[in-house]
Amino acid sequence: MKIIIAIDSFKGSATSAELNQAAREAVEGVLAGAKVETFAIADGGEGTLAALVEALDGEFISVPTVDLLERPIEASYFLVGQTAFIEAASVIGIDRIAPTPETVERATSCGLGALIRDALRRSCKEIIVTLGGTGTSDGGQGLLASLTKEEKEQLRSLSLVGLTDVTNVYAGKEGYARIFGPQKGALPHQVAAMDREALAYVALVKEQLGIDLQTLAGTGAAGGLGGALVVLGGELRAGFPFVAEIVGLQQAMQEADLVITGEGCLDAQSLSGKVPVGVASLARTRGIPTIAVCGSLATELGVFDDYFLATYAIQTGVYPLETAMQKEVTLANIRFVVRNIIRTFYP
């Protein structure tokens, strides 16, 4: 009996590794002889660096910089040989603020420039930036303004990669302003203004560089930061396949009998490159059943029938969101639900 567990982090509650361990304890409590393998996993959003650190040998480099409201902070990136892994959320993460109309006006991506500059100073040949979980909606303009002309030229001479957890383009109906602006505190008139600026920038980039940001999936990621990386000569890749390959998830699925995955909220956005659907897709090619355990589930889940044998919300009672998101509550609920799943699946 072989069971694979790869649950994404529940934002603001528990890490992928913590959730995996809780689920593992539940499985082993029912099936003492089962072979259980856990994989810290992510999709380019927050938690991606933690997943990579578990699979790679490197060192953390600490750099003084500023957060999205330009408050002084120390932020770290992960250096593996001549490759720098930078998690945007560690510098300009939405968890650093309580989003309001005021913060959406002030929030800037400029703080990422210090980490990129340090990586260039260390002669890195590759810089990989994870783009999810940010609180900025500046179209990446803060980052672009923070870099010198010489630094921009240096970036074009190496491999610059942005890992995305969404497929949104830079502007318009599916652009960063209209889709993610309200989540980051923007009022309707601010969303409209941001989108006008984004559309104008799309036209400018197309005219000056011959690049159409509207044709590239992920340019709207991280409040348009994906588009800024493209302007700097970078490429965008889907985060989940990148992480899954590095941690060896696909290879580990050989001869597996069951896969357990999940995320904080399983909804329509999960179809756009999120962990549970990515994990289930890998398992489906091998005919392995996949079960998703999540903090919450959208009410219309028929679209997921092709991916999951079943989906479960882990909540065991009615209590405030603040209580439900407490780490100890989340981990206890994961253990309870997974234990019951295993008892049902393997009576």
UniProtKB/TrEMBL annotation:
<protein>
    <submittedName>
        <fullName>Glycerate kinase</fullName>
    </submittedName>
</protein>
<dbReference type="InterPro" id="IPR018193">
    <property type="entry name" value="Glyc_kinase_flavodox-like_fold"/>
</dbReference>
<keyword id="KW-0808">Transferase</keyword>
<dbReference type="InterPro" id="IPR036129">
    <property type="entry name" value="Glycerate_kinase_sf"/>
</dbReference>
<comment type="similarity">
    <text>Belongs to the glycerate kinase type-1 family.</text>
</comment>
<dbReference type="Pfam" id="PF02595">
    <property type="entry name" value="Gly_kinase"/>
</dbReference>
<dbReference type="InterPro" id="IPR004381">
    <property type="entry name" value="Glycerate_kinase"/>
</dbReference>
<keyword id="KW-0418">Kinase</keyword>
<dbReference type="GO" id="GO:0031388">
    <property type="term" value="P:organic acid phosphorylation"/>
</dbReference>
<dbReference type="GO" id="GO:0008887">
    <property type="term" value="F:glycerate kinase activity"/>
</dbReference>
<dbReference type="InterPro" id="IPR018197">
    <property type="entry name" value="Glycerate_kinase_RE-like"/>
</dbReference>
